Amino acid sequence: MKKFAAIYKFHLKENLTSKAFKISTAIIFVAILAFFGYSNWANQNDSGNKDSIAIINTTESNVNIQSLNKGLEETKLESAKKNEEKKFREKVENGNVDGLILVRAQKGVPALTYIYKNFPNNEAAPVVSQALQQSYIADTIAQNKIDSKTAASLLSTVQVKDEVLKDTSNTFGIVYVFVFFMYLFIIAFGQMIATAVAAEKSSRVMEIMIPKVKPILMMYAKIAAILTGAIVQIAIIAAAGLIAYAIGWLDTNELSIFGSGIDLSNLTPGVIAAFITYFVLGYLLYAMMYAAVGSMVSRTEDLGSSQFPIIMLIMGAFFIGMRSLFDPSTTLVVVSSYIPFFSPIVTFSRIVAGEAGTLEIVITIAILLISLLFINRLAGRIYVHGVMHYGGKVKFRDMIQLAKSK
User: Fold this and answer.
1) Among positive and negative, which fits the CA dihedral 292, 297, 298, 303?
2) Which keywords belong to this entry (predicted)?
């Protein structure tokens, strides 16, 4: 145990004091503060700016622009003359005006054409269209002398009531953040383990260490040290978010990703416990495979091709996890949640969506633990023999032979 602790402290100190760790952590820390600071500044500057959209109305239907502007939060409508269409088209093209709405009669009915340069304003067109429709209906009723009760009956809409049995839309943001974080963490720090093992092997450090320390202890110490260093880095990065929140640059009620809100109320103790459990098990599973692959490589340049099968597995887990965001009950997602290489990401996403029951959670954790024991045995054998194996590029049959040897 003393030897394990000594190796663990050595690798941990090496990771925490390395230039790469310090520089990457500092860059990410500053980048997060800069991102939230800029977002806060941009929101404050944009809050008083409204999109300017011109309206050219060539129909008899009346549109009260002043009345419409009172109900618009992000848009300012202005009236333009009929002969100014060409001029305002040029203004839209040059960016001087955000949009142009043309109202023309089409078979006696007002038709709306919305002209914009790059991105549409989703507020103006529906409001103007509704105002035109109401004006046209009122004019038609007056011209045809239709009874008001009959008109009201004809204009009544069919009521649609939504009744959702299980709404998972509010979990999209949380699942995406955690799934992406788990994928990024495993693939980044797993490759760090493989690179560190390969570098030590190529420098012949292993030949000095092996007579004094068991190779399997070296593997475990390295995995634990890199995990600890990663947690320290995450804590420092999280501190940047807390500082942004304390300053007022971060509003937890307006968190979103790709337009989907991040509802922090879904972060229950059960969800956090599930994330920690599946994250640790998933990290250990892939870390052992990365360590085994790193031990089989004599040069760090050969790591790319040897890591490819592991990368394909973690990418498959990530993409299936993304699929579960939209439909967590499909056959592919359900089956994948029981496959140990996929379950850390896929099962967690199903837990947040409320699709995974207690029995499924217990079974998937049990499968993960059994798989860990199996991978630990194979990876340990490959690592012990691989660190002293020097040769060309790693071959799959060589790894099988080393896994069979005792």
Assistant:
1) negative
2) Cell membrane, Membrane, Transmembrane, Transmembrane helix
